[in-house]
Specification:
Layout (H helix, E strand, L loop, with lengths): L2 E5 L2 E4 L4 E8 L6 E8 L6 E7 L5 E3 L7 E6 L4 E6 L8 E9 L5 H9 L5 E2 L3 E6 L1
Parallel strand pairs: 2-11
Antiparallel strand pairs: 1-3, 3-8, 4-5, 4-9, 5-6, 7-8, 9-10, 9-11
Length: about 130
C-alpha cells in the first residue's frame, strides 16, 4: 500500500523559509515520481513541483521557480520541498502525491503534475505565511 506522510508545515513570516518533507513507503521509489501540490483557501489544488525517482529529474512550475526547490534522498525514500522568500499567497495546504512513472517521459510527467493526475496522496501539511 502506497503511503505518503508530509511534515514541516507551520507559521512563518513573509520572506521566511520552510522545508517540507514527504516520506514515502509501500512502493519502489525508483519506479515513481513524487509531486508537491498545494491548495490555498478558496482555490483549486495546483501542482508545484515534481521529482522522478529513477533519475532525479525535477520540475518546478514557472510561478514558483527561483523560490521553491525540490530534492530527494532516495536512501530515505524522502522528498523535500524547500520554500524560500515565502509570500502570504503561498498560504495553503501542501500535499505530496505519487504516480508510477516508469512508462512516461518527463514531458508527460510534467503534464500529469499540471493536471493533478497523480494516484496516491498524503494527508497534507498546512503552511501559513503572515504578512
Amino acid at each position: 500500500e502506497v503511503q505518503l506522510v508530509e511534515s514541516g508545515g507551520g507559521l512563518v513570516q513573509a520572506g521566511g523559509s520552510l522545508r517540507l518533507s514527504c516520506v514515502a513507503s509501500g512502493f519502489t521509489f525508483d519506479d515513481y515520481t513524487i509531486g508537491w501540490f498545494r491548495q490555498g483557501p478558496g482555490k483549486e489544488r495546483e501542482g508545484v513541483a515534481c521529482i522522478r525517482g529513477s533519475d532525479g529529474s525535477t520540475y518546478v512550475v514557472d510561478s514558483m521557480k527561483g523560490r521553491f526547490t525540490i530534492s530527494s534522498d532516495n536512501a530515505k525514500n524522502t522528498v523535500y520541498l524547500q520554500m524560500n522568500s515565502l509570500k502570504p499567497e503561498d498560504t495553503a495546504v501542501y500535499y505530496c502525491a505519487a504516480v508510477k512513472s516508469t512508462m512516461y517521459s518527463f514531458v508527460v510527467i510534467r503534464t500529469l503534475l499540471r493536471q493533478r493526475a497523480f494516484d496516491s496522496w498524503g494527508q497534507g501539511t498546512q503552511v501559513t505565511v503572515s504578512s
